[in-house]
Amino acid sequence: MATTDKASPRDRLLDAAAELFYRDGVSIGVEALCRSAGVSKRSMYQLFDSKDEVLAASLERRRPWYEAQLRSPDSETATPRERIGYVFRRVEENAAAPGYCGCPYLAVLVELKDGEHPASVVARAAKELLQGYFEEQAEQGGAAEPALLARQLMLIFDGASARAGAHIEHLGDGLVTRTVTTLLDAAGLK
């Protein structure tokens, strides 16, 4: 008996949603989403109550991958400063990839402008997790004001992601990591 490796309709919808919403924005229509996923609208509505729910589920599903991209592979032995630096080197690397459109979570928050939207809730949680990570590293590294440093790092992260995603800024020259290094020095991070 042969088995197929074909993804389930739910997985195809979530995969298509992640790609389309990232590339084209959250205003993509249900028909385009279903066509891309190879799933009927009827099937989509049997699996999800709305397109909003599909967007939120696709963002939630992507979160472990997103978080893993920002965690240093040497996190056990790296210093807090090295862990923070790794995040920003990844931003620079990712920004150079074809099709880079910035941070998907920031994009959703900016596009939706509705803090209660299910996708905004997921996106905000992802951003808060990253800020919490920065604050934890800042505390471990002896920064004078860890919460302030975390907020400043988020401004750099989001600003660099947005500018590179909008193709306004090329991050390949190390501007982001140099800026972060200056900030970490000023904060007294070891």
TrEMBL record:
Q: What keywords tag this UniProt record?
A: DNA-binding, Transcription, Transcription regulation
Keyword Transcription found: yes
Q: Which residues bind DNA?
A: 29-48
Q: Which domain of life is it from?
A: Bacteria
Cite the InterPro entries for this sequence. Homeodomain-like_sf (IPR009057), HTH_TetR (IPR001647), Tet_transcr_reg_TetR-rel_C_sf (IPR036271)
Q: Where is the HTH tetR-type domain?
A: 7-66
Does Disulfide bond show up as a keyword for this record?
Answer: no
Give one Pfam family. Answer: TetR_N
Name used for this protein in its record: TetR/AcrR family transcriptional regulator
- The organism of origin for this protein: Streptomyces hyaluromycini
Q: What is the lineage of its organism?
A: Bacteria, Bacillati, Actinomycetota, Actinomycetes, Kitasatosporales
